[in-house]
Every structure is written in structure tokens, then in C-alpha cells.
């Protein structure tokens, strides 16, 4: 199968993905902006970079890891107490081995958190030593957890909503003379109530090109109708007019599939609350592009006269007849 020739107008800056071609039409950039690249040969301690992983992972995964760590540590110390001599823990009330286990477990939890309600207390050098070690371990563990929580809350990030699909739709602009012109477009919005200012957008068109009998990956920057905005208070439809100078000129959805096309989206802005620069990335594969469609307006006016943006409509579109 011969690949469709692309208009080579402006080469994109180095993307870091090289020119190798994926064998299975695999995307280079995941929807969440992370690179879909496997890293091999890393040093062991670099691979288990715990701090960076805990800072950047999702809140759900972070909470699960913290709870699992808490219960695992308690179970370990509970096993130590039981193997050593649980009868040295004074004040326990139980009638079965099951109740005995939970009495020791909650004594471990009270020691780890340094709560110490008073009914349960260690007796003897061995049990007291283990309890002292556990309390020290708990203090260090909760100090670490507090630092991680602060790091997660204080790290400025952008929460951008991207439309599920990118569209190739009819388009008109006063600066162009084409009557039957189309444009590649997608829509974004700020998912948070914070203010994002000085927003800049870059779209890179990635595709396979046949050169001298070899297929290589090529990247081109798409010219946007508007690439910068002062504020992102409403939704923003980012548009690339498909003129005769565009690398997308004349391409059909079938052509994009054959080219294994992928569109890299990079957004840079300043978070007004932190006064720091934040970034957001995403991508669209050819399977996520819809031809001859139009976005449903997400901006409306309330009865009070106030302008409103409906975030649930960011991905809504209608097919054109």
C-alpha cells in the first residue's frame, strides 16, 4: 500500500519520539498526555522512584496505596506481637482467638498512630521495645505522608477538558478566499474554577511518510487560526484551517488511517493562583476524528443575562447532512 504524499510546509520542532514507525498503529501520546513509551534498562533505584510516582499518580491510586501500606504495617507488627507474646499486652478483652487477634491488631494501630487510649498497654522489655519501634516508625511514616500530601496539593497542574473527538468540518474565514474550505478543530475548557491566563496552544501532525522506499515518522506543526489567548474562562475551539498549504489538504479519513496519523496537542498557560506556568497534553488518533460534523454550542446565556459554559457539552457534536 502506497502512502499518500503530504505537503511539507513546516517541520515541527524535535518531539523526542524519533522517526521510528510503530508496528501496530500504537499511539505515541496517551490521552492523559503521558508518553506511551516503555523504558528499558533503567537502574533499579531509578525505576522505583517512589516520591515522584506518589506525587504524580491519581488520587484514587494514591489513597489505595496509603491505606494498603497502613494496614500492611499494622498486620506485620500484629504478627510480631502474637509470635512474641500477646499475653504481655495488658488490658485485652477477648473470648475467642478471633477477638484476640483484633485486640492485638488495634493495639498495634494505637501504637502506630501514637493515640494510646489507655486500656491496652505493653508489659515487659520485649513488647515495650517493639511498641517503641512501631511508634517511631509511625511518626516517620505520617511525617512522610504529610509531606506527600503537601506536595500533591501544592504542585500546580492544569486540568483541561478536551473534546472526545476532533472534527474536520466546513469552515469560513474572512482572510481566506476558499468557499468550500474545511478545518481541523477540537474544543477545550478549564475543568477548574482557577484562572488560566496567557494560554498558548501547539498542534503537531504526526504521520508515516515513504521516503526512498522506507517508511519513517514525520512531524509537522499545524498553523492555527488563534494559537494564543489571554484567558480561558469559557470553552475554546482550536482551529487549523485546511488551506492548500496545509499538510492535511486533500486528506480523507481513509488517508489518515493509512498514514497512522496522530495529532499531538500541547497547551501552556499560567495559573493565576500559583503564578506559575502549567502544562497539559493530549492527542487524537485518526479513529478519534470525525469528518463533516459540527460542535454543539456549549456557551449560552442564563435568564439573568449571565454568560454560562456547559462543560458537559464540550464533546457534543452533530453530523452534517
Helix amount, in percent? 25-40%
Number of helices: 6
* Span between termini: 31 Å
- What does the overall shape look like? elongated
Radius of gyration over all CA atoms, rounded: 29 Å
Mean pLDDT: 84
The count of DSSP E runs of length 2 or more, i.e. the number of strands, is 16
Structural class: alpha+beta
- Report on the biggest sheet: 5 strands, mixed
Give the uncertain stretches in residue-range form.
Answer: none
The H/E string reads HHHEHEHEEEEEEEHEEEEEEE
Strand content: 25-35%
Describe the structure.
- The chain is α+β, with helices and mostly antiparallel strands.
- Helix content is 28%, strand content 28%.
- Strands 3, 4, 5, 9 and 12 form a five-stranded mixed sheet that branches. Strands 6, 7, 8, 10 and 11 form a five-stranded antiparallel sheet that branches.
- α2 (50-56) packs across α5, α3 (59-84) crosses α4 (97-112) and α3 packs antiparallel against α5.
Features:
321 residues, alpha+beta
Strand and helix map with partners:
Layout: H1 44-47, H2 50-56, H3 59-84, E1 89-90, H4 97-112, E2 121-122, H5 125-154, E3 160-162, E4 166-170, E5 182-190, E6 196-211, E7 214-221, E8 228-231, E9 236-242, H6 253-258, E10 262-271, E11 276-285, E12 289-291, E13 293-295, E14 299-301, E15 307-309, E16 317-319
Parallel strand pairs: 4-12
Antiparallel strand pairs: 1-2, 3-5, 4-5, 5-9, 6-7, 6-8, 6-10, 10-11, 13-16, 14-15
Amino acid at each position: 500500500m502506497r502512502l499518500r504524499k503530504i505537503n511539507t510546509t513546516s517541520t515541527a520542532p524535535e518531539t523526542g519520539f524519533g522517526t521510528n514507525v510503530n508496528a501496530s498503529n500504537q499511539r505515541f501520546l496517551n490521552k492523559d498526555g503521558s508518553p506511551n513509551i516503555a523504558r528499558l534498562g533503567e537502574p533499579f533505584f531509578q525505576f522505583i522512584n517512589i516520591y515522584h510516582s506518589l506525587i504524580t499518580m491519581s488520587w484514587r491510586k494514591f489513597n489505595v496505596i496509603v491505606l494498603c501500606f497502613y494496614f500492611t504495617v499494622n498486620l506485620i507488627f500484629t504478627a510480631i506481637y502474637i509470635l512474641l507474646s500477646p499475653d504481655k499486652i495488658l488490658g485485652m478483652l477477648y473470648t475467642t482467638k478471633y477477638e484476640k487477634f483484633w485486640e492485638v491488631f488495634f493495639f498495634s494501630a494505637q501504637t502506630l498512630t501514637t493515640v494510646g487510649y489507655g486500656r491496652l498497654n505493653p508489659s515487659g522489655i520485649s513488647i515495650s521495645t517493639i511498641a517503641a519501634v512501631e511508634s517511631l516508625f509511625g511518626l516517620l511514616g505520617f511525617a512522610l505522608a504529610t509531606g506527600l500530601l503537601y506536595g500533591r496539593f501544592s504542585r500546580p497542574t492544569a486540568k483541561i477538558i478536551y473534546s472526545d473527538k476532533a472534527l474536520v468540518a466546513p469552515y469560513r474565514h474572512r482572510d481566506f478566499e476558499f468557499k468550500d474550505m474545511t478545518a481541523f478543530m477540537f474544543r477545550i475548557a478549564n475543568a477548574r474554577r482557577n484562572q488560566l491566563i496567557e494560554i498558548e496552544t501547539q498542534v503537531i501532525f504526526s504521520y508515516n511518510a515513504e521516503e526512498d522506499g522506507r517508511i519513517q515518522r514525520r512531524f509537522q506543526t499545524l498553523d492555527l487560526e488563534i494559537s494564543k489567548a489571554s484567558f480561558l474562562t469559557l470553552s475554546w475551539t482550536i482551529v487549523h484551517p485546511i488551506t492548500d498549504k496545509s499538510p492535511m489538504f486533500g486528506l480523507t479519513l481513509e488517508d489518515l488511517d493509512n498514514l497512522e496519523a496522530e495529532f499531538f496537542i500541547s497547551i501552556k498557560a499560567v495559573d493565576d493562583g500559583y503564578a506559575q506556568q502549567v502544562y497539559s497534553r493530549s492527542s487524537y488518533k485518526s479513529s478519534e476524528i470525525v469528518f463533516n460534523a459540527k460542535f454543539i454550542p456549549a456557551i449560552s446565556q442564563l435568564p439573568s443575562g449571565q454568560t454560562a459554559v456547559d462543560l458537559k457539552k464540550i464533546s457534543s457534536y452533530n453530523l452534517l447532512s
